[in-house]
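Support request from a user on the community tier.

User writes: "When I paste my structure tokens into the form, the page sometimes reloads and wipes my input. The last time it worked, I copied everything first. Here is what I submitted, just in case something in the input itself triggers the reload:"
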């Protein structure tokens, strides 16, 4: 069904409404298989470097703050040239990729998918404007790993 072995990590707080964590939760039932691992995490952790070792594609999902709630974007992410981390809270995607390259000699193709949130208050469920776009975001991610 899937052509590329992939890792999908949704980043965010499960107690905040418009956050990437929730999108990953929705994708878990739909995509989790021997070829695709889907995780929801509060933040990026050093332990994720090992998970990058055996995948061809890594997809990160996160919410962003901006002027246009519901806007979806996607961009390729490259390893950092100068990774430096003093605490696990400092981990970002380029640093994670750089550590994978250093430790394992390879980096999977990596992409960040974002959706601009409208409501990051405490609560469950997406805001109305984000809710209307989440299915489109999920379909974009599914289509991307099936390429």
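"...and here is what came back when it finally went through:"
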């Amino acid at each position: 069904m899937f052509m590329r072995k992939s890792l999908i990590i949704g980043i965010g707080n499960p107690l905040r409404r418009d956050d990437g964590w929730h999108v990953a939760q929705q994708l878990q039932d739909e995509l989790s298989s021997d070829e695709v691992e889907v995780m929801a995490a509060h933040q990026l952790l050093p332990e994720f470097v090992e998970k990058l070792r055996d995948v061809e594609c890594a997809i990160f999902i996160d919410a962003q703050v901006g002027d246009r709630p519901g806007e979806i974007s996607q961009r390729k992410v490259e390893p950092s040239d100068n990774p430096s981390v003093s605490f696990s809270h400092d981990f970002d995607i380029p640093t994670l990729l750089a550590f994978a390259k250093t430790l394992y000699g390879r980096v999977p193709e990596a992409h960040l998918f974002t959706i601009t949130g409208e409501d990051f208050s405490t609560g469950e469920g997406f805001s109305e404007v984000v809710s209307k776009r989440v299915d489109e975001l999920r379909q974009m991610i599914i289509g991307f790993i099936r390429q």
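Agent notes: The reload is a front-end session timeout and is unrelated to the input. Residues 44 and 110 are 14 Å apart (CA to CA). The two ends are 11 Å apart (CA to CA). Escalated to web team.
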